[in-house]
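Q: How would the structure tokens look for this protein?
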Amino acid sequence: MIVFRTIDPQDLNGLAQLIPRLGPGNNGRFQTEKLELQQMLRESHHSFFSNPQKPQKATYVFILEDLAQQKIVGFSKVHALVNHGNPFFYYELRFEHKQSEALGICKKVASLHLVDDASQSSELSGSFIVPEYRGKRISPLLTIGRLLFMAAFPRRFANRVVGELRGVYDAQQKNPFWQNCLSHFVKDWDYPAYLAAIRSGLESEIRKLLPIGPIYLSTLSPETQSVIGEAHPESQSQIRLIQRYGFTYRHRVAYSSGAPIVEADFGQILPIRKVRKASVQAVRDTLSADWFYMSNNRIPYRACLGPLEHNLNQTVTITHEVAQALQIHEGDSIQLFPR
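A: Here is the predicted structure in token form.
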């Protein structure tokens, strides 16, 4: 059984073992030094066990754990408020038509414009799962588990939710958009140097150096143009999943990589809008029933995928394995969303 759960300070060593396995584009979203990880876990622990009445600066870190093997096999984050004190900034891809009847030329011209977005937003941040655990049943739990958490604690989050997908990188961790375009404005840093600056809290300073635009795509190399608005091949299944759940791409891209940024209104996200709550009436050894994503409704938060049977009195029956994964008992309330 794989469980998606609140990270705990005792998970430090297990999490640290996964960091070297992060691929290009993921390692900038997670602290890589053990002391940094320790601080991240402390901040996340405080976020979970606080009780905010409105969105505030907080980061929630979750892990995927293989209960049978007792090991961490994935992790992900949610930022409750990404623009706390500073605007959320990105490049917007805009199109215009240039035409000359005398010359017989009509062209559609694309350009990038830096946007400071002051509207409150929560963010589904980076996620990672070790390759041997990737699949149709387990991988979606990293996304759905977070969305069900947001459904259980809506006051913690903004009315708008964004997600920056992983961009396109080569084996040397180089992103063509950053390397060929933006690095020239920031001390000619390579991408690892930029990531180090981000982890040091210098993102707002980097913003001061970026070109406002327009940056005309036709002036960029074909390699650079090809990654703007494109997600990493390993993120293709994730983008299909979140688009199915109501997120849309509105030609907004990450300033650091050109990766697509998707967004949705909180109340229109399918797992949040369609989530159901039910009381557990019975727990059985086995069930021949449809499978659902399920979660408890408390902190520490836990979610999993397993069989569930609906009863006539609006209650449900689950298996002992699911009850153990969620740490719940008969009479407890759970959230459920169909697979």
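The chain has a mean pLDDT of 86.

The chain has ten helices and 15 strands.

Upvote if useful.
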